[in-house]
Every structure is written in C-alpha cells, then in structure tokens.
C-alpha cells in the first residue's frame, strides 16, 4: 500500500511564518528528507527520522522520498520558503514523471509556504504592489544568456524583479553583471532591496539606488527586489523608509 508524501516549505526561517498546514504535515510524517539547515528548523520527535543531503541533490532526494512513500511510509520533503518556488516541488514532479509507475500512485500533497521575496517585501513596505516577476540568477540549470535576456525584457516591460540565488562562491560575478545590465533599462534612482534572513534574529535589510547597488553585500541567503520605474520611496522621520509600487499606473482606471 502506498503511503503519503508531503512537500512543505518552512518559510523564510522564522518559526511563526510556517503555516499551520505545514506544521500538521510535520506532525503526521515519520521520515524527513531535505537540506540539513532546513531540517534543523523543525522540532522533530525522537521517533521521527532525518535524511539530510546536500542542497544540490534534489532529484536523488526526491527519488529516495518517493520510494519510501511508495512502500507505505508517511514522508515529508522539506524546503525553505515555498516548496514550489525554485525548490523541491518541481524536483518531485520531475522524478514522478520519469520514475517507476509506483511513484505515480503516491498520495502527494504540496503545501505552500512564505517565499523569500514575500518576506523581504513585507519588511520593506510593498514593492510587489503591482506586476512583478521572479528570476533565479543561477546558471546551473539554464544558460546565462537566457538569464540576461529575461532580465532585460522584464525591466523593459516594467516588472518589479525579485532575484533568487543571486551570488555564490562558484558564481561571484553574476549579480554585478545583472545590475550592470539593468542600469541600461532603469533609472539610476530605482530602489534595490537586499533582504537577508527576513524575519530571523540576524535579519539584514538594506535599500540602495540601482546606480550604487553593491553586489558584494549579497550571498545565497539574500533575496533581492529591484523596483520598476513606478516604485517609490517614502521617507519617515525616525523610521525606516517605505518602498512601494503603486497599485495604479498612469492611464489605468481607478
């Protein structure tokens, strides 16, 4: 008899931002697969087992979890943020598509979580108040020229852009190149929000104009939101500035 497979997100890291649905899935599961630091966020019972693996082993992790669920266990795959945004839900679906028939019989439940761009946006104000998109800067799974093309088209179309996987030790140059490219399309004053560990004790939120945006302050735990030509900054005496994108554009109906 097939068991169950839950695919959950822990949110950006603050336990209070994990959804009740995800917490219920954690309570029901016996085995947990995921990247070690994400599994560390869970408070597991002594009878619940961890199966930690490297962050780049998504398909192997998905296959191992599916095999265990197909054998009758209640299994949980754990992502940070939302499991469907540059995370494990897509790897699980890919594994099911290309795997044995038994994996298609698994009772699969994907539960939404709070993804990084939503947590960072909430800390800054409302930069996602109008149309926006999300782009991963990692060229591990797609070529860099595709990323460059998407960045240019998104900026030209007027989207606010959330950047995931902006920089790493193996990819130290790509964020700087992205800023350089976007300066050809956007005003120098366009706000760039750097959000690291939003909602956690070591949270760091910084806002810089695009002309001065410093790629060196970002790492893989940073989500970056780049405003559109419509995005505004509201200064407040003694309080952090608010960054928001108005709901209405010129020519729209109110």
Automatic annotation (TrEMBL):
EC top class, in one word?
transferase
- What are this entry's molecular-function GO terms? precorrin-3B C17-methyltransferase activity
What's the Enzyme Commission number for this chain? 2.1.1.131
Give the protein's recorded name: Precorrin-3B C17-methyltransferase
Q: In which pathway does it act?
A: Cofactor biosynthesis; adenosylcobalamin biosynthesis
Q: Which GO terms describe its biological process?
A: cobalamin biosynthetic process; methylation
Q: Where is the Tetrapyrrole methylase domain?
A: 5-213
Q: Which UniProt keywords apply?
A: Cobalamin biosynthesis, Methyltransferase, S-adenosyl-L-methionine, Transferase
Which Pfam families does its entry note? Answer: TP_methylase
Q: Which InterPro entries match?
A: 4pyrrol_Mease, 4pyrrol_Methylase_sf, 4pyrrole_Mease_sub1, 4pyrrole_Mease_sub2, Cbl_synth_CobJ/CibH_dom, Precorrin_MeTrfase
Organism in which the protein naturally occurs: Rhizobium aethiopicum
- TM spans (from-to): none
Q: Which PANTHER family match?
A: COBALT-FACTOR III C(17)-METHYLTRANSFERASE-RELATED
């Amino acid at each position: 008899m097939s068991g169950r497979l839950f695919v959950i997100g822990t949110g950006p890291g603050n336990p209070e931002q994990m959804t009740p649905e995800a917490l219920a899935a954690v309570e029901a599961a016996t085995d947990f697969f995921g990247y070690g630091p994400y599994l560390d966020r869970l408070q597991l019972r002594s009878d619940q087992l961890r199966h930690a693996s490297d962050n780049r082993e998504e398909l192997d992790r998905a296959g191992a979890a599916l095999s265990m669920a197909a054998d009758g266990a209640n299994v949980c795959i754990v992502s940070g943020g939302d499991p469907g945004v540059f995370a494990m839900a897509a790897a699980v679906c890919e594994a099911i598509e290309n795997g044995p028939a038994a994996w298609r019989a698994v009772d699969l439940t994907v539960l939404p979580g709070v993804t990084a761009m939503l947590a960072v946006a909430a800390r800054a104000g409302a930069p996602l108040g109008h149309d926006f998109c999300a782009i991963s800067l990692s060229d591990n799974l797609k070529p860099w020229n595709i990323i460059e093309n998407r960045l240019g088209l998104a900026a030209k179309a007027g989207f606010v852009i959330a950047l995931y996987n902006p920089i790493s030790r193996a990819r130290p140059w790509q964020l700087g190149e992205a800023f350089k490219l976007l300066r050809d399309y956007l005003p120098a004053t366009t706000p760039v929000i750097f959000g690291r560990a939003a909602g956690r004790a070591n949270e760091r939120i910084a806002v810089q104009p695009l002309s001065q945006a410093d790629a060196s302050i970002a790492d893989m735990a940073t989500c970056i939101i780049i405003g559109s030509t419509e995005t505004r900054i509201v200064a407040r005496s003694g309080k952090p500035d608010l960054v928001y994108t108005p709901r209405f554009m010129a020519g729209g109906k109110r």
